[in-house]
Write a structure and sequence with these properties.
The protein has one domain: 4-Layer Sandwich (Metallo-beta-lactamase, Chain A), CATH 3.60.15.10. The chain has eight helices and twelve strands. α7 packs antiparallel against α8. It has a seven-stranded mixed β-sheet. A five-stranded mixed β-sheet has the order 8-9-10-11-12, with helices on one face. The chain is of the alpha/beta class.
Length: about 260
């Protein structure tokens, strides 16, 4: 089901960085003149909204220098193959995420896991919404690429990949040092329809490939120098990232005790 871009969907975080909310998921546009970097691309049903968001910030699809993928779940790579096939945009990610993006395997929450938790608040409405947005579609990326080297990427915004495994094996956050921004994907979120609270937190356990590694990855994020956190789900968080990550860890420990 194609989604339209609502008037309040784009948040201008800095003069050149935009956070865009789609179908319960976010993507980020980093501009540099007439070119830009797109980080994640929403659900398959968000394709028109992704294209509209690029147009609204003054970018043509073919002017996107690369799509950076935090991880290859359907709600983050929905328009990536379209941009690659139709506009020649390279799609980059951590090398451990490449086979996942090709769909050599699918490493995401199963229908059975969802049904087993359908009684929990928010799970069933989220599942219906995800299904209508293309959450179970087969959306492989034909030519995913690992990063060309270590350190910052030669792309608009000079993003620095931060390998944060746990949600998936090759999950990556992206640090924009010159902007003071950390884009966390699903390593840290600020809200989710299946979560009971808002604020920095891990996603509910069923969404993680390895929750213990997801917790360990918080140590890496906690050391990032940034005062804005843009999550894969939920609103932009303004404030020291180290404090936000610490809050996410405390929240996760509280959930474990419950």
């Amino acid at each position: 089901m194609p989604k339209v871009l609502h008037d309040d969907a784009i948040v201008r975080v800095t003069s050149d960085v935009y956070a865009v909310s789609g179908s319960n998921t976010n993507w980020v546009i980093v501009k540099d003149g007439d070119s830009g970097t797109l980080i994640d691309t929403g659900y398959p049903g968000d394709r028109d909204a992704v294209l509209a968001s690029l147009e609204k910030v003054g970018l043509r699809p073919g002017a996107v220098s690369a799509v950076l993928v935090t991880h290859a779940h359907n709600d983050h790579i929905g328009a990536a193959e379209y941009l690659s096939a139709e506009h020649g945009v390279p799609v980059l990610m951590h090398e451990e995420e490449v086979p996942h993006a090709r769909r050599d395997f699918l490493d995401q929450v199963s229908v059975g896991q969802i049904l087993a938790r359908a009684w929990r608040p928010g799970v069933l409405p989220w599942a219906v919404h995800a299904l209508r947005s293309g959450g179970t579609q087969h959306v492989p990326i034909a030519k995913p690429q690992g990063f060309p080297g270590s350190g910052g990427l030669d792309l608009p915004g000079s993003p620095v990949p931060v390998h944060t495994p746990g949600h998936t094996r090759g999950h990556c956050a992206y640090h924009l040092p010159t902007h003071g921004i950390l884009i966390t994907g699903d390593a840290v979120v600020t809200a989710h329809p299946t979560a009971r609270t808002q604020g920095p937190q891990l996603l509910p356990n069923m969404f993680h490939t390895d929750r213990s590694r997801a917790l360990d990855s918080l140590d890496l994020l906690e050391g990032m120098e940034a005062d804005v956190l843009i999550p894969g789900h939920g609103p932009v968080h303004r404030g020291q990232v180290r404090e936000a990550v610490s809050a996410a860890r405390d929240h996760a420990r509280g959930r474990t005790r419950r």
